[in-house]
Recover the amino acids of this structure.
């Protein structure tokens, strides 16, 4: 039997650092090199990764000795609501008394830089050659568009009689 999802309530000043509401949120857009700062990227482009997913972030955090929680949330600056762009990861940064949970990660930026540096080393990234999802969709659209009469373009009104 599956465990029930933890209940998250609204924030108030009396909450402890160990409460999930106080954990930091990381969306994949924060470390996506294809995004601009306006679109939600938080790190410099050279430190970011091409199209990370919440599952890759989860895989990196599961090894890094930090408590985390995956939520099915959509980033507010994300235009698409498809499943591949959904997902938020909450990470505990501090203990109950306010001390750091892990001294290697004093800030949220240090956690994001760690995640962005480890994602290219994942086995799922080693097998990919570029962005295979978009390459497949382009190949399918090219194949379906080549079965007609001519070079495409505007349809026009047709012949006048």
């Amino acid at each position: 039997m599956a465990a029930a999802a933890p209940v998250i309530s609204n924030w108030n000043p009396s909450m402890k650092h160990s409460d999930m509401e106080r954990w930091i949120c990381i969306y994949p857009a924060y470390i996506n090199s294809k995004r601009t700062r306006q679109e939600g990227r938080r790190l410099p482009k050279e430190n970011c990764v091409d199209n990370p997913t919440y599952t890759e972030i989860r895989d990196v955090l599961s090894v890094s000795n930090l408590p985390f929680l995956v939520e099915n949330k959509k980033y507010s600056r994300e235009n698409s609501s498809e499943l591949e762009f959904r997902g938020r990861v909450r990470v505990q940064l501090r203990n109950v008394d306010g001390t750091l949970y892990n001294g290697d990660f004093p800030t949220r930026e240090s956690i994001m830089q760690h995640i962005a540096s480890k994602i290219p080393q994942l086995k799922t990234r080693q097998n990919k050659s570029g962005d295979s999802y978009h390459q497949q969709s382009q190949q399918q659209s090219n194949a379906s568009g080549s079965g007609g009469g001519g070079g495409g373009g505007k349809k026009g009104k047709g012949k006048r009689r």
Observations:
- Residues 27 and 75 are 7 Å apart (CA to CA).
- The longest strand covers residues 68-71.
